[in-house]
């Protein structure tokens, strides 16, 4: 080996050394290398895949208007990553590499929403992930004063399309009974009954067998400035086949307290309107508006139960229950809302009854009369507007 060759080998060696050093540095350095998401009506999940773990304290969040910013210390990004989302909640996610150990992430929300950020440890071949879950949060939408004093009722036939709701036989792939058909059929009957009134406008969240996300349903209630929002469902309780009858649910007070807190956080002021005028109130008074809504939802539920009892066999009306679950459609501040479970597909008698047109009419008549009675009582109550 002459000097020249020796030099070559030496140079190559140090170059190799440098290369491996760089490679191992790259392995040690944590980078965000991809953005993924999934979305359904209730939640949009954004996932940032990372090459290493990032402690929660290294992730700072900041909400600027409708932009949620994450500042991540201790991680770079392979390059600028941008993703447009097909989601009702989030428009876009962009990952901006600032330097090798700092990254900013911009999540553009379509509206004010709740979110949750957490890390998922690497497992079963999956890398460490930063997860951002975005949940819908209802906020009041401004309502125009109605020129013609018509009351607006939004009827919400539960489920639809890819979501059949409860089915019979339970968990069957090819069910003979689907909740979505029963709810639509009852809702049509209620609409028919209410349409006879020239002073009531009926809006339906769906009139076909289509999937409508829950947020969209609540939005329809808000945009239409509904005086009453009535969601129609049928239940399934495989472990309690003896359970039967119609139940009317209203949101429990603590759900309203939650909605109120959000409203406080985002609303500068809200307006209270009746049919002829509006006036503004400050957030300190929002408490009042949600209390009014809660009281109004109870009144609507009571009226429907009373009228159901007059039409459907008394024993079959279970009365009013507080909905403990976090139901989006019942969280409409300013819009009185109830959810009606018209019967149990898991109860043999209910199952037969619910398919009968005559029984569906009985329930529909009870619901329609209850809504009418409630609206009548409303004449002197101010409507709450966002
Ligand atoms: Zn249902």
TrEMBL record:
Keywords: Hydrolase. CDD domains: MurNAc-LAA. GO terms for cellular component: outer membrane-bounded periplasmic space. The keyword Hydrolase applies. Its EC number is 3.5.1.28. One of its GO terms (biological process) is peptidoglycan catabolic process. InterPro entries: MurNAc-LAA_cat, N-acetylmuramoyl_amidase_3. Residues 218-372 form the MurNAc-LAA domain. GO terms for molecular function: N-acetylmuramoyl-L-alanine amidase activity. This is N-acetylmuramoyl-L-alanine amidase. It comes from Balnearium lithotrophicum. The lineage of its organism: Bacteria, Pseudomonadati, Aquificota, Aquificia, Desulfurobacteriales.
